[in-house]
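Hello K.,

You asked for the raw outputs rather than the summary table, so here they are, unedited. I folded two proteins back to back in the same session to keep the settings identical. This is the first:
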Amino acid sequence: WLEENGYTVNACLAMGSSPEEISSAGNAGVNLVLSGCGCKAAEWFRQQFGTPWVEGVPYGIKFAEEQLKQLKIAETEQICIRPHLERKIPGSGGISVVGEGITASSFARALEMEYGFPVRVLLPEALKSNPLLPEDRLISCEDSMSEAFANSGTVIADPLYQPLMPEGVPFFRYPHEA
């Protein structure tokens, strides 16, 4: 996706890049942070090389277009941007997405931009590594997750969460890459 849109990928850290590719990562004009585990590395590259970064996974058409715009802005203005956090949050009921913070939040933003659905993120405490919106929920245990599911109109989560679902709440499979 990045190469199709005019970017050169120097390295994809922690995803099979060679040592040579990783050693060239400091040459990047901008970094794209796809998950919370990349936040500290992105901040290190910013401090060491002045490399700005944008957080978010380019899901859907509209959010992917927004990501491209944000990458250009970050590179030009030398700033760090979190566009996945620019969401409207549903009241009670509504859609809840469970997953890693940046990934789930990006998916929520894409659903909002493509279909107008406000989506809340339910983040398992073990995966917290980046900021959430105040209305999103940090979940500490299965009982709390089950309660959050009961207060949702629809849940989108890894199939391993399905046993916690109350009857009558629609569940859509969204496998989490572990």
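The second followed immediately with the same parameters:
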Amino acid sequence: MSRAKPTPIPLCELTPGQQADFFALLAEKTKGTTREGKPYYACRFRDARRGAAFMVWQDSPRYEECERDWQVGQFYKIRAVYGEHERYGPQLTEVQAIRPVNDADRADGFDPLQFVEHSRYDAATMFAELKTLATTHIADEPLRRLVLTLLDRHADALQRLPATRDRFYPFAGGLLEHTLSVTRSCLQLVERYTAHYTELRPPLNRDLVVAAAMLHDLGRVLEFGEAMPGVSPAYTVPGRMVGHLILGRDLVRDTARELGDVNPELVQMLEHIILSHLVLPEWGSPRLPLVPECLILHHADDLDAKLEMYARCLSRDRSEGPFTERDPVLNRNLFKGRNV
């Protein structure tokens, strides 16, 4: 009597130590060399909600197969043991079988859409709201035109790219979701503090805060390259060499010069806020913030990024006990054993 074929289990549902069959996308395959000069491949398989690393060393029986046949962007059916390393996070060990998926796998539940993590909100709707906020809340007409021009020129990338590759909003449409969320928060904060600090002359510039919120991460559209669905975009050469802050500043500067009618002082302050909104040099900021509007953007941006990472960790953790597994990005175990 033949043994029943194991039913595949989603990678995101596996628990540490569990062996199972599952479908996964090969999202990354990077060749490296050990200190002893031996080659290896660092691979990363994923579904829409979890990624797991798999190291293929030169002496592994999978090495030649990996080097010759495994392709980034290809879907595979895998039988392996899932684990979670304290430092390196989710891992695949003891890979017993691996092959490309085929048409017959659809009967076992394979669906390519399960491997494309994306924003829970419709990208077109978010983009339309962002443009409406610009039209409604940026009173200075040349500055408003600058913002709308940049949004329209990079509409496709804004709606397609993640905010980051592996930290906050690391999914398709994440860049737009993050930008819209930060803009909403900045609008509330600038209204609150403009009313509170009436002694400031000139007062806090709402137009500047809103424009900066919408454009603060625009350099990501040049920092990241194209990517297949479900695969993290690679960094471009300018992305590696220069980074998104300076790339975003350059987009603003070049477009302002092209349009020719934006107040030069507004452009200068907008460039400064884009360059300094990360505040700390160790976070990548080349300058410290010198205008109060930058503080509003910084804290709205940082809070939005941190809350997204916390929410994703807490909502997806499946471990036993009152604490999550250690999150490799946050570098901590979050408390989830609360009743209030």
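Residues 278 and 285 are 5 Å apart (CA to CA).

Happy to rerun anything if the numbers look odd on your end.

Regards,
P.
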